[in-house]
Amino acid sequence: MTTNSKSPDDGTIPTEPEALEPEAAGDGGGASESMTRAGYVTLLGQANAGKSTLMNAMLGQALSIVTARPQTTWRRVTGLLSRGGAQFIFLDTPGLLEPRDLLQRSLLAQALEALREADVLVVVLDPVERGRPELRERIREAVQKSAAPVVLVLNKMDAATEEAMEREEAWARDVLKARVHRVSALTGEGVAELLDTLEALLPQGPFLYPADDVATDPVRFFVAERVRETVMERYRDEIPYSVFAQVEEYREDGRKTYIQVTLYVERASQKGILIGNKGEAIRALGREAREKIEHFLGEEVYLDLWVKVLPGWRRKKAHLRRLGFSVPEDDVTP
Questions:
Q1: What pLDDT is attached to residue 13?
Q2: What confidence score (pLDDT) does residue 122 get?
Q3: Based on the domain organization, do 236 and 313 belong to the same domain?
Q4: How many domains does the chain have?
């Protein structure tokens, strides 16, 4: 995988990078700027609509983590796709929701910030699980705040009934005034046609990133996400939503890469559940997460997991900032 980071410790790439001439971006044909297109494509929608699966399908690789649980995406993930004379900068965002704590307010703020950056807005709907009316109203309000052209994607066409698809298409055209694409992000059906539509909507201009890059986040971000994905898959009840994974050390010494990851939980009881009887649960978690990380990196690693209690981290501004989350400015909690 080629990211825009030179080492695991590099910071994220600025939101508005310096434009690259097409030759520097990898377009060896020396095309002029007027012949290339590049822009931000923001994926927006309710939780569990399949935004991350769709971005992975368009990129052709698993960049964002995906689980069966709603609200898996906690950080905005930027995926890059360069093909021919077009560069797509996909922004995979947390699902729109009614926030119940400060973490969820931060997730919603991330989604709305990506909305403001969009050159093209892709609204992803799940016709199988339509969701509450207030969530549809939130989608409508979000779309109205954007001046970008809107494409509505009806995902899960392989599972939805024709009646459900037609109902959603009518809502999209009547309420959002959007063009509609039916796709199955899981099987890939309709994805190529969607990309063609999005390419035509990208603004003309030079590539913003080198053509062989596929992400802007540092490697350690994706490593931590693989650990958190495994937690969400292996544990139940409140545990998946109370654990945050952070890489504390990433050391390459010519042998196996050493990676230390701390799992932060809110309560001591959660720490006990995560570790399990005689450490059996944490060892199983480590084995599975290590396999995912090795597959992602293409090399063997030594994964060292630690568990620490950070009391009420989902609800406290200082803790969220410590873990790298942005906190809405209008929040007054300590």
A1: 34
A2: 97
A3: yes
A4: 2
Query: Nearest-5° angle of CA 82, CA 11, CA 41?
Result: 35
149/286 same-domain check: no
d(C-alpha 265, C-alpha 188), whole Å = 36
pLDDT in tens, 281-309: 999 999 999 999 999 999 999 999 999 99
- In this structure, are 271 and 315 located in the same domain? yes
Token pair for residue 29? 């044909």
Using CA atoms of 41, 47, 51, 53 in order, give the dihedral in degrees to the nearest 10.
Answer: 160
Structural domain span for residue 49: 33-201
pLDDT of residue 150: 96
* Ranges under pLDDT 70 in the chain: 1-34, 330-334
Determine the Cα angle at 241 with ends 240 and 243, to 5°: 70
Task: For residues 90 and 141, state if they share a domain.
Answer: yes
Alpha helix segments (H runs only) across the chain: 51-59, 102-117, 133-144, 162-171, 191-201, 219-234, 239-242, 268-275, 280-297, 317-322
